[in-house]
Design brief:
Strand content of chain A: 15-25%
Protein name (chains A, B): Glycosyl hydrolase family 115
Oligomer: homodimer
Largest interface: A-B, 33 and 33 residues
Mean pLDDT of chain A: 96
Number of helices of chain A: 20
CATH superfamily of the largest domain in chain A: Glycosyl hydrolase family 115
InterPro entries (chains A, B): GH115 (IPR031924), GH115_C (IPR041437), GH115_sf (IPR042301), Hex-like_dom2 (IPR029018)
Keywords (chains A, B): Hydrolase
Low-confidence stretches of chain A: none
Strand order of the largest sheet of chain A: 11-10-9-16-15-14-13-12
Distance between the termini of chain A: 61 Å
GO biological process, one term (chains A, B): carbohydrate metabolic process
Domain Gylcosyl hydrolase 115 C-terminal (chains A, B): 786-962
Radius of gyration of chain A: 32 Å
CATH topology of the largest domain in chain A: TIM Barrel
Structural class of chain A: alpha/beta
CATH architecture of the largest domain in chain A: Alpha-Beta Barrel
């Protein structure tokens, strides 16, 4: 029995005349051969020697690789006829491959690896499958992810693997918003948007198991820049299906019309189907004639130039629909004439983007384009709200549409409320939550993600394409598997670069930075996002950031020079870029807050912010120069302090400086609150320390800060037996030492029924009295998971429900809430499944119970914190059910009245990545149960905050941290 | 004929045995002799030799000075009997003196100067009158104002001058709020609040023609600190009438009770007339016994300790009045017993301060203390609002009160809304306007001004006391004479120190800095007062400040070392202190505004602010060290950035720093407005230059500023023939050169009917279009002084009325408006006279007409800017009459409904030194006349701003600058 083996020896001794590893047929697809050459190069990276390829089977080595495409390979045909392989398992399928070891396919070859594609892309995926098996990363060339060296690779004699058809038909990305970054990069490295560059992009796409691309189109003309048609021809060679963006129909790119139009142009000089019908038709016709030969998904429909509406504001809905119907009819006819008379065989796509959506749905008086014959077999592309939240999704009826559906998703966006184009800020759990819902709702024909400049999006892009390729593995059923995916991704790319211990750190770094970016994207950060003091959210976030930055540096130190570029490009640069930027703004917030109290610490904080600003530039510079400028230009997007939706007039943080007071002065602040005093007898000098009202809190602190640069002493007089202070006196110089944190520890056993204590802090300008309130009991007489209001409010993490009730529908399907781990801005989230279901309370709606004890009877407000889902229906509503104790159930719309994607509420939601909705309850003193029913799809609950009416807890970005519950 | 002569020769040759200048009688008042000794020392300063004094008339020189007091001088008595002098002209009068040269009063003396006082103070004023005639400043010792050297002084043989009785009976000041400044000073220089120090204070008071003092009382006990009674004895010797503050009755100072009280004290341990009646009475009794021997104005009544209410909050008005009546009855009885059985001969004072005011007036149900027998012959002391604005004044009926009235005025205050204790911030025109009204209303028995630490208040204090001493000269009839006073004051103190040219500068410096302090006191300045850009009010104020600072430095350079201390103390330190502080905040405003636009100029401005902060400290240090620490401690009061009513937790300005953008960027701002752009095509990039809508404006400007530290060029394309630009291109480096002002000049002759032009400024990130709107006509077809609305609003200086109408009352008294020059925050003000009159419209009310042309018919708002006068009556109303065109007259209360001194509106008024009141008018397109009638006393109008309803001009502190009027 012969295994299939590749080893260094056989490669070393091979020559062009003998011992070739690859059998290359004359009639094979040239693109498949090109990919085989890439795989050969991969083998060189692994074994040190470039394998040979031959078309003469006598020159093959003892172990050979025979690859080809069904119906394009005499050799495969022959082996199949000899029953050595069974092509029936793949024939007629989409993009599948057979990967099989056979012994002695013919004389001279002892063992062969057969890689047979059901079609061109099947063969290509099969070839790249070999690279993957050899430990070669799909990012081997794109990101210089060098594989581990191997001595030998073997597959058992009976090894056979047949790939599945990809879950989604068209899977790809969109290079967009390509200036200044991608444009500078390709101009610098390749001289333009040409085929030399696209070769790399196509390879990336195919290795990631994608098959579909929207090319760069801001200033580029894909069909001209190759030069000539070289880009399109290369795509076709590789089997890359080309698309064009939603407003670029009939294989014509947007810039083309700008380029060709004019007074003397045969295409006229107006992008107007009414006034320049003939010119536009001619323009489309020639586009289809030119590029119809290639494999495309042809965009149909018509929008205005550069992502604008096509008709003027006075046109009615009916006018628009009629015009669009005419356009579609015309385009279909052109496609029949110039591409394929059988329209059903021509992949076409209409994007229901922006104003096109209403044209599709129509209104009660006007029939939309939905179900019209012009759209038969056309893929209807829906979209997210440009910020990663899906909009309307196909209803059950709509899912019958023959053409199927697509989804246009964003990892990058140039538009309102604030663009994000710099580096990756997408978070896998969100992509999972949203894209699985898309799939569940029947969007399975086209997934396209806008990746901007591509660079730094490789991690979420791989996930997006893997999800699209193998939904069974990563999709709806793989709940809470994004960490597993991330771990695998880390191993795939870094197993030979980092120890397992370091790879765990890298996992932390990737999940950590993307979680923080999920909480707030870099471009939308500013000094007013996180509260500088309340609930210590700034300090705690800074602590997380510093831990992650520490990891990033440790890994930077740990990695070999050979692998540095890959680490920088895939992790260090996007992670540190994100983290440093968040830190920049958090420190600015602290600086501003400190300055407003005259704290000299403000000046030290300002220096720290300046260090972050310098770091930001140094980081981009490093990224631009590493590996001889491989990434030159890709960091050029502005990313600090956006004041408009785009980068224009963006602003670096305004740092505040303080000037020392004239005499020794200290200010005391209660950490986590805005309370402060210098102890003046004439003004507020009693501060409240309320932390110990939470029975699980054992330490709390105040900070003493310098207001002058003169030596200033303080003294602490502790008048409370059950409290201890970390120190009782000290002195600050206001120069080096500008702050001191005093920590108080409670000894609840010594409280003896007391609930209040006090501590006096003597200061140079008076004395501060610290009133300390405390709760002794842990309320263990109450059931576990019962929240206790001890300090004016309760904050509940949605995952910490008291009880969970599943339901079933008439068909017996289980309806239930699941916890989505790591999803949401603090801990996690809960969401009901199946995601497509509109649940009926009392029948099939699952619910969760939250139990809590209030100190007063009366109207309370419950603030629900939710993932900012849009409505999946045209009605723009998103319901859940709420029931307090034995009261009636209220069905509430958690979206504001009249909510619309692109309105102000929506904008706030996508910037903060949260929707909040307040409901009122008439609650009792003592124990209460709040029941939350799932109703509409898209309801994803993260947190509940309960407080007496009009007594909202202090302002914060993340909301109050979870309060005490029994058993916490 | 022999002149009276003093010359160097006679002084030089005089010995103690012969040639004495001063004839000193044994029986003379010792205080008068002490003053004579001071005058002798003055003569030494002038002539270089100390004159001799003798009681032996044979030892007198040929020219002698004979001084004494009527009925206390045998010599004067004899000369009178000899008919050489006529004492009848002074005998029985208050504080007057005869100053007469006579030949050969007796053997051996050829010529004598007789200085005869009607009483002790008359003699003292007469002696100091000689010093003044010799050119010795009243501040000779207090402020080291050294006189010019003289060879000779002579008075003609027939010279005779008899002084007038002072206009106000008791004239003095209050040393208050004496920590940290005055207290540190006297502790450092004299070892406490003792007689050594008070000798200087008494001298200052008497030389300034005052006679009345409230001593320091925060931590001092005047009657104990002398040591012992030395302070009181010295005051009595000098004829200084001692008072005590409004809450310190019966010659007991506030700190005394604190010092003496206690469980075992005979005075008990409660400042409570109900619970500790006997103790309190005993306390008062012993005070009167101890100090009743001296000349006093005895405070009567009772308030709580340390300026608080005496009874608790539950006590009714009637309770309080009854208690106070009992107190007064008791005190009167104690005074009868221990001071003088004839109460009418004992000067007593009740302060109607704070809560005492309602006890005096009572209400409709409760008879107040007004007209009660307990107050017979008691001076009723009214007060300002602590910020220089009088409160209620005696009605005509009340003026009959036998005891007369007093006024407690403030140049310094420790209290809300914000204290002002650092340096002089009082403005003579305001003192004139307020104190003349006090006098007109019959307040003529006691004028007391709180001068805090005294230091730097010498200038307004001299004015206050001169006004009180000679109201005929400086009072109501001396309208607009404060400049004359200031010029005389400058000459009096600096004639021998500066050239006339430099004295003019010093005049500008004194009026300039006090005017700016009048607009805003130092302690109340902050970054939000002046608008950093609107109407260029910050830039223009900075320009004024820089001119004044320049003057201050020029004078500093010009003055001799000998006179430096006087110049620093009287002018340089308070002027530069004020100016530098105003500059500090104005630059901070510019810094903050620049930083918010990302201008790198912000960093340069921050450095300038820091220079001001350093200057502030250096200035105080200089003041503390000059002349061997003569002023040590007097600059210690905090004065920057008050956040409370007192200095606690005051804050230095928060400076904002910018960090350069990543690429060349410039921002254009339209000077005087908040408009700005970097020229982005996606955002606002058309700015409006509206300056030329005012027909008299010929130049306007924009500023181009660096946003990055990279070389950035701009280019200006002028598309308008009637505009010229100061430059058409340029470049900023963002390092040294961060701004460039581009000035546009209009050539109206070339407009040819055009009203709009445009200028394009090309910037690194786009282009800014400057839309230039202009008015060609000067509207000379309209009458002069007609305001023309060309830019949305009209701003009128009150002095620029179109017409003025006087009126007369039944008695034939002329009622008329006068312009108060230099009064008010911008140009001047108008006020109707007599100041005591309540005018009746249609009968005796004078009025002013304002004429203006509007561009639209419709509701307009007229915002009246007024000196923040309080109501002179209990009704808390202040009326004026308003009449538009032929419409009915409206009588409007310009104070907000329910206005009260100490409420929020009042606080805003005293901080900003303005009251604003908006009235609505239904105005016509075209010509309108607005008539303003005087109604209530205290109506002082500074400015009128007219604009269409709800279209208020941009925010500013000083209000929009005056707009165009025909003939401007």
């Amino acid at each position: 029995m012969m295994e299939f083996v590749i080893n260094q020896d056989m490669l070393k001794t091979a020559t062009t005349n003998s011992g070739a590893l690859f059998y290359q047929e004359l009639g094979a697809y040239s693109g498949v051969n090109k990919v085989a050459a890439k795989v050969m190069h991969d083998i060189k990276l692994v074994f040190g020697y470039l394998p040979q390829a031959t078309g003469d089977r006598t020159k093959l080595a003892k172990h050979a690789i025979i690859y080809g495409t069904v119906e394009h390979s005499p050799m495969l045909q022959k082996l199949a006829e000899q029953k050595r392989i069974d092509l029936a398992t793949i024939t007629g399928k989409r993009e599948v491959f057979l990967f099989q070891v056979i012994e002695q396919p013919f004389e001279g070859v002892e063992s062969a690896l057969i890689i047979a594609g059901s079609d061109k892309r099947g063969a290509i995926y099969g070839l790249f499958h070999l690279s993957e098996q050899l430990g070669v990363s799909p990012l081997v060339n794109w990101n210089s992810v060098k594989p581990a060296r191997k001595e030998v690779f073997s597959l058992g004699t009976n090894f056979i693997y047949t790939s599945k058809e990809p879950s989604v038909r068209y899977r790809g990305f969109f290079i967009n918003d390509e200036w200044p970054a991608f444009g500078s990069w390709t101009t610098h490295n390749f001289g333009g948007f040409n085929a030399e560059m696209y070769d790399h992009v196509f390879e990336l796409l195919l290795r990631l198991k994608g098959n579909y691309l929207w090319p760069a189109m801001w200033s580029a003309r894909f069909s001209d820049d190759g030069p000539g048609l070289a880009n399109a021809e290369l795509a076709d060679e590789y089997g890359v299906v080309m698309g064009a963006s939603h407003h670029e129909p009939c294989l014509r790119y947007g810039e083309e019309y700008k380029y060709l139009r004019g007074a003397d142009s045969k295409y006229g000089d107006a992008w107007n189907f009414i006034t320049n019908r003939d010119g536009i038709i001619k323009f489309w016709e020639n586009g289809l004639k030119r590029s119809g030969q290639f494999e495309n998904v042809i965009t149909v429909g018509m929008r205005g130039e550069q992502d604008t509406a096509i008709m003027d504001k006075e046109s009615t809905l009916a006018d628009n629909i009629a015009m669009l119907r005419d356009v579609l009819k015309t385009q279909n006819q052109l496609i029949r004439e110039h591409v394929n008379p059988n329209l059903a065989e021509v992949p076409r796509m209409l994007a229901l983007y922006k104003e096109v959506e209403p044209f599709f749905y129509g209104d009660k008086d006007t029939q939309g384009l939905i179900n019209s014959e012009e759209l038969e077999n056309v893929i209807l592309m829906l979209c997210d709200d440009n910020h990663g939240n899906l909009r309307t999704l196909p209803t059950e009826d709509m899912r019958d549409h023959q053409g199927g559906y697509g989804m246009y998703y964003h990892f990058d966006y140039h538009g309102g409320p604030v663009s994000y184009e710099w580096i990756n800020s997408s978070y896998l759990p969100k992509i999972w939550e949203q894209m699985t819902m898309a799939y569940d709702f029947g969007i399975r024909d086209l997934w396209l993600v806008n990746v901007g400049d591509i660079a730094t999006q490789e991690f979420p892009l791989a996930y997006f394409l893997d999800l699209a390729y193998d939904f069974d593995k990563w999709g709806t059923d793989a709940i809470n598997q994004t960490d597993l995916y991330t771990k695998q991704w880390v191993d795939q790319h870094f197993a030979n670069k980092f120890s397992e211990f370091d790879r765990d750190k890298l996992f932390d770094l990737l999940t950590g930075y993307t979680k923080l970016a999920h909480n707030r994207r870099p471009e939308t950060m500013n000094v007013n996002v996180y509260h500088p003091v309340n609930f210590k959210e700034t300090d705690q976030t800074l602590e997380q950031i510093d831990q992650l930055l520490q990891i990033a540096e440790e890994l930077y130190q740990a990695i070999d020079a050979e692998h540095l570029s890959a680490y920088v490009a895939l992790a260090y640069y996007p992670a540190v870029g994100n983290l440093n930027l968040q830190k920049l703004w958090l420190l600015t917030g602290k600086n501003n807050a400190a300055a407003k109290l005259g704290k000299l610490e403000a000046n030290q904080l300002a220096e720290q912010v300046q260090a972050c600003l310098r770091r930001d530039r140094a980081l981009v510079d490093q990224y631009h120069t590493i590996e001889n400028g491989k990434w030159y230009g890709l960091g050029l997007s502005e990313h600090i302090g956006f004041t408009h939706w785009n980068e224009d007039e963006n602003q670096n943080p305004v740092l505040m400086q303080t000037w020392p007071a004239n005499k020794p002065r200290l200010v005391v602040t209660v950490d986590g609150t805005e309370q402060h005093t210098e102890g003046s007898p004439w003004h507020k000098h009693t501060l409240l320390l309320s932390d110990f009202l939470q029975p699980d809190i054992e330490q709390a602190s105040v900070t003493i800060s310098s207001v002058s640069d003169q030596e200033a002493a303080y003294q602490i007089i502790n008048e409370t037996a059950w409290l201890t202070c970390s120190r009782l006196s000290g002195s600050l110089d206001g120069k080096e030492k500008t702050t001191e944190v005093i920590t108080f520890t409670i000894n609840r056993a010594a409280m003896n029924g007391e609930t209040e204590g006090s501590i006096v802090i003597k200061l140079p300008t008076g004395a501060c009295t610290l009133l300390v309130k405390a709760t002794q009991s842990k309320f263990t007489e109450l059931p576990e998971q019962t929240y206790i209001e001890t300090n004016g409010y309760i904050s509940i993490e949605a995952a910490h429900y008291f009880a969970k009730q599943n339901a079933t529908n008439a068909q017996g399907d289980l309806h239930q809430f699941h916890v989505l781990q790591g999803y949401g801005k603090t801990l996690s989230a809960v969401k009901a499944f199946p995601t497509t279901e509109h649940f009926t309370i009392g029948k099939d709606a699952p619910y969760l119970d939250y139990q809590f004890v209030l100190s007063e009877t009366g109207t309370h407000e419950v603030e629900l914190y939710m993932q900012p889902s849009n409505s999946v229906t045209n009605a723009n509503t998103l319901f859940c059910g709420v029931q307090l104790n034995d009261n009636d159930v209220s069905i509430i719309n958690v979206l504001p009245d009249g909510y619309q994607v692109n309105d102000h509420n929506w904008g706030q939601g996508v910037l903060s990545n949260i929707h909040k909705h307040v409901i009122k309850i008439q609650a009792d003193k003592g124990l209460n149960t709040l029941r939350i029913y799932a109703v509409s799809p898209g309801f994803v609950l993260e947190k509940l905050v309960i407080y007496p009416e009009a007594n909202k807890p202090a302002a914060s970005y993340l909301g109050p941290p979870e309060t005490y519950y029994v058993g916490k």
